[in-house]
Amino acid sequence: MTRLLILWLLSEQPLHGYRIKRILEDDSYRFWFSVEFTSIYSALRTLVKLEYVIETGYEQDGARPERMGYRITRAGRAHLRELIAKTWEATPLLSDPFSMAIAGKSELSDDERQTLKASRREALEARLNECEALRAAALDEAMVDRAIAILTAELGWLKQWKT
Predict the structure, then answer these.
(1) Where does the pLDDT of residue 96 fall: very low under 50, low under 70, confident under 90, or very high at 90 and above?
(2) Looking at the structure, do residues 27 and 49 belong to the same domain, yes or no?
């Protein structure tokens, strides 16, 4: 995900690593894309090594520290298109921590399971509200619609699930 995001951002304009980090910290990105900020520079080094990105030299803005700039290459644009196509074709992983919690439900009492089920329902409903609240900041309406469909489906499943 980090490489895909970096290549996508660099396809719009050359940037330095700190600017990439700042963009990804913005609500319109952070809510939708989970990125470890420490992985940005590692991903940039890898993308340079693979010649998908080139260093454009150090830049300095006022009294701020010098920062290395990066630009996507032609090979990087081709790789970006490949990553996007592969992502369209990939199905979501079914393994997640909640699946393990379901498998381990016998470790909890009936009351604990009911309390946790109610908490999950509340969290899913809160996430639905967040999606709607951040709709205007989303990069594409379809992202919001898909997230709402997934959350709504899980809420429906949760309501009928007999813990």
Answers:
(1) confident
(2) yes
Task: Report d(CA 138, CA 132) in Å as an integer.
Answer: 10
CB atoms within 10 A of CB 115: 12
| Domain that includes residue 143, residue range | 97-160
Tell me: do 12 and 82 sit in the same domain. Answer: yes
Question: Can you tell me the distance from the alpha carbon of 21 to that of 18, in angstroms, rounded to the nearest whole number?
Answer: 5
Under the phi-then-psi rule, with left for phi > 0, alpha for psi from -120 to 50, and beta for the rest, what region is 51? left
Q: Mean pLDDT, the chain, as a whole number? A: 92
Looking at the structure, tell me whether residues 42 and 80 fall in a common domain.
Answer: yes
Q: How far apart are CA 67 and CA 27, in angstroms?
A: 24
Integer distance in angstroms from the first to the last C-alpha of the chain? Answer: 34
What are the distances in angstroms from CA 145 to CA 93, 128, 131? Answer: 20, 10, 9
pLDDT at 28 over 80: no
The CA distances from residue 132 to 51, 116, 137, 150, in Å, are 39, 24, 10, 14
Q: How many domains does the chain have?
A: 2
> Which of 62, 89, 116 represents a domain boundary (last residue)?
89
Distance (Å, rounded) from C-alpha 138 to C-alpha 126?
17
